[in-house]
Amino acid sequence: MSGGIDSTITAVLLHEEGWEVIGITMKTWDYATSGGVTKETGCCSLDSINDARQVAVKLGFHHFIIDIREEFGDYVIDNFVDEYMAGRTPNPCVLCNTHIKWNSLLRRADMLDCEFIATGHYGIINELEGRKYITRAKDLQKDQSYVLWGLSQECLNRTRMPLGVYTKPEVRQMAAERGFLELSKKAESYEICFVPDNDYRGFLRRRVEGLDDQVRGGNFIDKSGKILGQHEGYPFYTIGQRKGLGIALGEPMFVTEIRPETNTVVLGREEELIRNAMMVGKLNLMKYPEVPEAGLEAVTKVRYRDGGTYSTLHGVGKNVEVVFHANVKGIAPGQSAVFYEGDDLIGGGIIM
Questions:
Q1: What is the pLDDT of residues 137-177, one digit of tens each?
Q2: 214-268 topology per CATH
Q3: Disulfide: which of 2, 87, 254, 347 matches 260 by Cβ 3.0-4.6 Å?
Q4: Tell me: domain 275-351, CATH 3.30.565.10, correct?
């Protein structure tokens, strides 16, 4: 329970159905430890924890706060920093869901003799031939299947997501009808929980001692190797970036490649971002146990707000080659590629 409307209504609905509910709030991050000055927001703030506890008190069920800052930091934050330092663009919310939140909740569920865990995510869990998979939520604007591709069969078998069949306005209405009027109007938070000011560059500088001295002064180059100017350091740029480059070249230029080994950032025209194939590793498959070498038709999303592109998936050892049926721009190594069959989530992986 984050203290927000979604996890609150999840608890309310299960309580009304007769389940014995136990609320758990996870403390994942203390922003002050990063050296930042911005007030804590989201699920880690004291206000949010108090909001969650008040719901539990009102409904009469137990509520616990668990401190997972150490395991969260060791895995999610270290990976976030390492990926940027390797010239890739990480997706920490996917890692947090897959390796921290679900696993931490399941361990506590076992300790408390709980059969299932429930979350306020917008998605629907279905089953085909003994395999669980996620289907897009009724509210496509709120659908969170993209960040849930990494959940294992064990996790899916023990998870309930009651909000997947509702729209966000319906959830707000349910909150208001049940006396949670303030909560029904509560604003949502979309930033990374440990970077609440959305300044990932400042976060990296605070986490990596002497970072500016290590990386400042590298070269911007074009695809032929011609030097175009100097940059602030390769970790501070992402594939597809156009604004904030600090260089004027007389025409719009985009980051097309990042080369950490030489502290070089390659710039090019927009058409140089176009690709029609990519490799994806670190796979987790849901609906089917494998991707055949002969191919599997799917719609592939390369970022959360991507509408998706028709493609053919080919199994290549432990990886998948994605061949797009149309050109795709801005494919960034380190981001998640997620495969759909209609509204059903086949699985996903990390762009190589």
A1: 999 999 999 999 999 999 999 999 999 999 999 999 999 99
A2: SH3 type barrels. (2.30.30)
A3: 87
A4: no
